Ferredoxin (Streptomyces broussonetiae), 67 residues
Amino acid sequence: MALTLRIDLDGCTGCACCMMECPDLFDIDDESGQAILLEPHPSDDRLEEAERAVRSCPEGVITLEQG
Ligand code: SF4
């Protein structure tokens, strides 16, 4: 099983909630002011962390695929 995180940047407001919740997975790009993924394919044992990131986004633009 593999994990894939994605951000729909069209809806990203740059609020940084994802980065504050999961700083190992997300950062905010200095130029665009939007989120960037540091780890688009976290290892399976980081499922809980990835799910937390999805929940942290008030815009609902972070998605997680498994498998
Ligand atoms: S929490 Fe969502 S809207 Fe906020 S910076 Fe992260 S991806 Fe963008």
Observations:
- Residues 2 and 37 are 16 Å apart (CA to CA).
- The radius of gyration is 11 Å.
